[in-house]
Amino acid sequence: MKIDEFIGQRAKELRLKNGVTPEKVAVALSLTLENYSALELGRSTVRAVTMFDLAIFYDLPVTYFLDGYENPAVRNAARRTPS
Fold it and tell me: Model's pTM, two decimal places?
């Protein structure tokens, strides 16, 4: 799993847990909905400033989006494809 996919999964989990719409997060991060959706799907490179803005939005340390990635099992996980 690429780091961008991992961060995107963390962002989506947070959004769903907090009951926030993708549109609301996109506006808060000054992104288009298309760009934010690509972030959640791991299809775009996550810039440091975007990760920092996500941390501020959710009132979490920026390290939240990286915690766990150091685990080789996570890094080497096969990318899931839709059935």
Answer: 0.83
